[in-house]
């Protein structure tokens, strides 16, 4: 589209026509009509008019305003083909488009191209690139940055990903060496240090006087978000705001209480003081501030429930429920659910499942099942779930509103469910997922407005569902067949590009538990892909929690990665195992009538062959 718009016209150019097109394109940019601006640029050829840098820049700016960063960058790249040299405004417009879309890679590429053209970046360019990187979050960067410049590759964070805060800091330092940063650039840089980067954020704040800048409410509120591991500093920043006669807003208070929510119970009184300060400052608490305050008292459910008389959103009630469930305070959890109903909020499957979890932990499986059965009557009101009667080789079993299917490897859960639904000409809802390279039993709710969908979600939240996976791992022995064990290690998951994710064991992660039993052991001495002290073990793994890539991450953490795991394991193990050896063999849940529903999927032939060759 961009190439066609910039196609070179005949040499006979009419200046008057060029001016006319430029005026119309300028109007389109002002009015946000990016499609018309691109169309007019393409029509300049028919009008025997050559585009110039001003015309191209206006079209790029129009695309940026319309949120079409790819087209803006494409137009920038095509300008030299029609003998129009991009100037600083051209790069500014393209980088701005990338910044709005959080496309850090494209923004850095434009920044690099600008330097190669020997153009001097200005404060606007730096601000756009810094903001794009700050927005991007914790994505992998090492490979890209190593190819982008002559700088040494950045270090790993948690041995997984390069922190974007490091890249943002590097660009910000380069900006400071060339010119004085403005408030926009400083605030954008501070955004990158959200979490536990208070020392870095504080270093920038300490230089505000040297920069000749006056911090505003955005500066302080953004800096507060960096105090997760130093929550007392949030009080210092709020005090400095007051001294500078800057009024704290709901973002400032909420950010401070969010930092306290991960702290010890000692932060609870301070969190309540901030709620009172919001009231005295006539700042209305929102669901973020209230849920953060509740989470601060997570280990003391009476404190969490004490906030229930306050008008709260669903998020706040869910936080209070989680607080009660984590403390096995089922009576208080039941009171939270009742308070939701009194507030004219219908509890969903997750809320009911959270209550059932507190019953499960405090009173046992039977009490939790009875609770779910009693609540599920409201879900069954009206149309009854149909019993499907489909014929497909993937279907293992069928029940009221439920299909149990055998998902193959090398396809995502969503892709598999969509393809199966298309062939069966019905609606299937995903309630539980299997990783892309994992095969095995996958439950799918059938039909529209299915009560079974809510039923399964509630059971998953209550941890009443049982799954058994077969996995083959390599490493030092875990014991003879029959040996059982439990892995308890928190897992943190990071989104890489919006489509893929990677997890790691981290103190800042969510609690994760995996039980396992050794089924068989195989010697692999002499194998080129294995260590001398290694052996291969067939395990039955039972995830108690449901974190992303949990089984794979837990056994890699133990030093016994799964065979065929390209993400967490040894790539050379592919010589003996052509795919990830992870298969959901068994899925067990409770039917709406209280009877067990069990589905089993045999080990696929390619995995069975692996065992036979060992």
From TrEMBL:
PPR repeat boundaries on the chain: 52-86, 87-121
Limits of the Pseudouridine synthase RsuA/RluA-like domain: 410-556
Superkingdom of the source species: Eukaryota
A Pfam family recorded for this sequence: PPR_2
Database matches in Gene3D superfamilies: Pseudouridine synthase, Tetratricopeptide repeat domain
Keywords linked to the UniProt accession: Repeat
PANTHER family: OS03G0856100 PROTEIN, OS12G0638900 PROTEIN
NCBIfam families found in the cross-reference section: PPR
Protein name in the entry: Pseudouridine synthase RsuA/RluA-like domain-containing protein
Organism: Durusdinium trenchii
């Amino acid at each position: 589209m961009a190439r066609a718009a910039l196609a070179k016209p005949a040499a006979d150019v009419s200046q008057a026509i060029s001016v006319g097109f430029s005026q119309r394109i300028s109007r389109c940019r002002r009015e946000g009509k990016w499609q018309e601006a691109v169309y007019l640029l393409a029509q300049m050829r028919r009008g025997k008019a050559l585009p110039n840098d001003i015309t191209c820049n206006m079209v790029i700016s129009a695309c940026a305003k319309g949120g079409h960063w790819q087209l803006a960058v494409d137009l920038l790249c095509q300008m030299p083909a029609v003998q129009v040299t991009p100037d600083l405004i051209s790069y500014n417009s393209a980088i701005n488009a990338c910044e709005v879309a959080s496309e850090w890679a494209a923004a850095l590429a434009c920044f690099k191209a600008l330097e190669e053209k020997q153009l001097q970046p200005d404060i606007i360019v730096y601000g756009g690139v810094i903001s794009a990187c700050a927005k991007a979050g914790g994505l992998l960067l090492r490979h890209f940055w190593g190819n982008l410049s002559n700088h040494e590759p950045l270090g790993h964070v948690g041995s997984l990903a390069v922190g974007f805060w490091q890249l943002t800091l590097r660009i910000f330092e380069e900006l400071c060496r060339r010119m004085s940063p403005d408030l926009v650039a400083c605030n954008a840089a501070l955004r990158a240090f959200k979490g536990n980067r208070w020392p870095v954020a504080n270093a920038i704040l300490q230089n505000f006087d040297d920069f000749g800048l006056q911090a505003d409410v955005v500066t302080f509120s953004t800096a507060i978000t960096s105090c997760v591991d130093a929550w007392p500093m949030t009080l210092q920043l709020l005090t400095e705001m007051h001294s500078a006669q800057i009024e704290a807003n709901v973002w400032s208070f909420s950010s401070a209480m969010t930092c306290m929510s991960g702290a010890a119970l000692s932060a609870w009184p301070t969190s309540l003081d901030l709620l009172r300060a919001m009231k005295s400052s006539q700042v209305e608490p929102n669901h973020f501030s209230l849920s953060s305050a509740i989470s601060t008292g997570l280990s003391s459910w009476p404190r969490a429930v004490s906030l229930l008389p306050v008008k709260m959103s669903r998020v706040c009630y869910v936080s209070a429920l989680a607080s009660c469930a984590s403390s096995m305070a089922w009576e208080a959890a039941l009171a939270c659910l009742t308070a939701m109903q009194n507030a004219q909020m219908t509890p969903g499957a997750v809320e009911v499942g959270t209550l059932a979890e507190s019953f499960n932990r405090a009173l046992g499986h039977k009490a939790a099942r009875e609770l779910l059965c009693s609540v599920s009557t409201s879900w069954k009101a009206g149309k009854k779930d149909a019993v499907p009667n489909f014929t497909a080789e993937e279907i293992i079993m069928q029940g009221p509103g439920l299909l149990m299917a055998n998902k193959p490897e090398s396809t995502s859960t969503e892709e598999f469910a969509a393809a199966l639904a298309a062939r069966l000409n019905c609606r299937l809802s995903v309630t539980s997922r299997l990783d892309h390279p994992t095969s095995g039993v996958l439950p799918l709710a059938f039909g529209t407005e299915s009560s079974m969908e809510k039923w399964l979600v509630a059971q998953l939240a209550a941890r009443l569902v049982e799954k058994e996976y077969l996995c083959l791992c390599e490493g030092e022995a875990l014991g003879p067949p029959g040996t059982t064990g439990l892995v308890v290690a928190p897992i943190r998951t990071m989104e890489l590009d919006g489509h893929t994710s990677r997890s790691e064991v981290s103190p800042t992660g969510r609690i994760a538990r995996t039980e396992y039993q050794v089924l068989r052991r195989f010697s692999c001495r002499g194998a080129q892909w294995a260590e001398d002290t290694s052996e291969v073990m067939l395990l039955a793994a039972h995830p108690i929690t449901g974190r992303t890539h949990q089984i794979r991450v837990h056994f890699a953490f133990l030093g016994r990665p799964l065979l065929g795991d390209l993400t967490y394991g040894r790539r050379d193990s592919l010589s003996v195992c052509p795919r990830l050896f992870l298969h959901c063999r068994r899925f067990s849940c409770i039917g709406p009538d209280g009877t067990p529903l069990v589905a089993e999927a045999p080990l696929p032939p390619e995995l069975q062959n692996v065992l036979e060759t060992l």
